[in-house]
From TrEMBL:
Keywords on record: Hydrolase
Example GO molecular function: exopolyphosphatase activity
Catalysed reaction, written as an equation: [phosphate](n) + H2O = [phosphate](n-1) + phosphate + H(+)
Family designation: Belongs to the GppA/Ppx family.
Annotated InterPro entries: ATPase_NBD, GppA/Ppx_hydrolase, Ppx_GppA_N
UniProt keyword NADP, yes or no: no
EC number: 3.6.1.11
SUPFAM superfamilies: Actin-like ATPase domain
Domain spans labelled Ppx/GppA phosphatase N-terminal: 17-307
Entry keyword Hydrolase: yes
Domain of life: Bacteria
Protein name: Exopolyphosphatase 1
Amino acid sequence: MRLGVLDVGSNTVHLLVVDARRGGHPTPMSSTKASLRLAEAIDDTGKLTRKGADSLVATVDEFAKIATSSGCAEFMAFATSAVRDATNSEAVLARVRAETGVQLQVLSGVDESRLTFLAVRRWYGWSAGRIINLDIGGGSLELSGGIDEEPDVALSMPLGAGRLTREWLQEDPPGRRRVAVLRDWLDNELSASAAKVLSAGTPELAVATSKTFRSLARLTGAAPSGAGPRVKRTLTAAGLRQLISFISRMTTADRAELEGVSADRAPQIVAGALVAEATMRALSLDAVDICPWALREGVILRKLDSEADGTDLVETFAGLAPAKGETR
């Protein structure tokens, strides 16, 4: 089955086309991205602006046509933090559906966390034991942990790299004192959530997903993406501390010249590094392995699993039950 997965995030809209079957390894066929920066198109009242909505509609329409021309039997489209947080999200979703025919599903932060954990579990397998996973997006940070495919705990916090850059690190480069204050604030914000994750059990494997973690690992010496997804990549706490002291003194333009940092990610890589550092510190992690699979793959795997009981995409998302110990 050829599937098209459209991920509308805070920074980018990403279409992934894969050939997949239940029990098999999803094979990527093509990947198309557009940098919309929807989180920056939220006005003072919390609404997604008309310009931002126009860009979203046009991009969804274009990418849906690409999925059709690519021979996708099904097209799964979902949105995360930026659309989820917009006070006019229902109106925006209705417009997308009316003008493109695409029913864009909004995932809750907890469901983001759980679907990403599913992908991580499938990648590492049962032999990995209890896994803890960290994922930094543009608008939110997701934490999850467990020994099964359904995590024992799944959390989402508004600590994304883009969000914190806009709220805390507006100077270029950010001031040393501002970085220090943000570090302290993050420690306070993460303490309760980290304790909840660790209370579920001591992890045997610590994992990180998302473009932010991949970039940070690359900047600290991990293999480039061209080496393939199965090359082991690790980010250490010590390497991360050294990296922060280096990149926090650089301008955005200079950071964009670093290998592994795109021009789109350069403005928020410092905030992303600080979130990663604080999260690892709160969870007492010396290192994390970088998993190439994340939310999009989790959506694909959930869809393939649902084929067995005839559940469609809307029912798949709507039917996500609370994680163990979680409430909605």
